[in-house]
TrEMBL record:
PANTHER family for this protein: POLYNUCLEOTIDYL TRANSFERASE, RIBONUCLEASE H-LIKE SUPERFAMILY PROTEIN (PTHR46387), RIBONUCLEASE HI (PTHR46387:SF2)
GO MF annotation list: nucleic acid binding; RNA-DNA hybrid ribonuclease activity
Chain ranges of the RNase H type-1 domain: 70-207
Protein name: RNase H type-1 domain-containing protein
Organism superkingdom: Bacteria
Pfam annotation, one family: RVT_3
UniProt cross-references to Gene3D superfamilies, sorted A to Z: Ribonuclease H-like superfamily/Ribonuclease H (3.30.420.10)
Family matches, as InterPro entries: RNaseH-like_sf, RNaseH_domain, RNaseH_sf
PROSITE patterns xref list: RNASE_H_1
Length: 221
């Protein structure tokens, strides 16, 4: 989680000056703020995250304590598929994360009806990921999203426009959930080869093989 420090500093002639730091990891920002307070000239301190939420020093410290026991360092892979014969969609997701100093991998898929195309299945797959993150309790954190659907990722990042009403509805739903969970997204388009695990899960969903599993990863895993 990155924040900016907004520091109101009082000069020797009693003039209040408001300074804003660069983006810092929240833990580092708290340490810097502690140094500011040692000057004895701090009038006010506030921390602003990338979603525009303001935090006091006490609130930010408490949040970091809570996050330490919750999933963090989250990296997600997603993929969607579509069967033209059955008009069924399949979505797959793999979530890597750290919790209580241990690393985990969550694998899950789902079979969906009312999907009209392979493209729509990709949007549905991203929405499926958002549901998994909410269930895991991921919030107020950066999350890396990786998938071979460059269209979905480029549209979410704002690099490409979307002209389809149906797809825009998916994008609106996803972006609203990102804001609700205060997730700072990093979108990384990857190749199909790099997305094999999520692709396999989507295919298994289409075949009727539904999977939800979590495992702790060893150092070698």
């Amino acid at each position: 989680m990155e924040v900016q420090i907004h520091w109101t500093y009082v000069t020797p002639n009693k003039q209040a000056v408001r300074l804003t730091s660069e983006w810092l990891e929240a833990k580092d920002a708290l340490a810097v703020a502690g140094d500011f307070e040692k000057t004895g000239r701090t009038k006010a301190l506030e921390f602003m995250d990338r979603n525009g939420t303001a935090w006091s020093k006490k609130e930010l410290g408490k949040l970091l304590e809570e996050i330490a026991a919750e999933p963090h360092e989250v990296v997600v892979y997603f993929d969607g598929g579509f069967d033209h014969q059955t008009s069924q969609g399949g979505v797959g997701a793999v979530v890597y994360y750290k919790q209580n100093d241990r690393r985990y991998r969550l694998r899950a898929n789902r079979r969906l009806s009312e999907i009209k195309s392979n493209n729509e299945a990709e949007y549905a797959a991203f929405w499926f990921v958002m549901q998994l993150l909410e269930e895991l309790g991921v919030h107020h954190l950066p999350v890396t999203f990786r998938g071979d659907s460059h269209v979905v990722l480029k549209q979410l990042s704002g690099d490409w426009p979307c002209f389809e009403d149906d797809y825009n509805a998916w994008l609106d739903r996803i972006e609203a959930k990102l804001r609700e969970l205060h997730i700072d997204p990093l979108y990384e388009p990857i190749s199909r080869k790099q997305n094999k695990e999520a692709d396999a899960l989507a295919r298994q969903a289409l075949a009727g093989q539904l999977i939800t599993s979590r495992m702790e990863l060893t150092e070698k895993g």
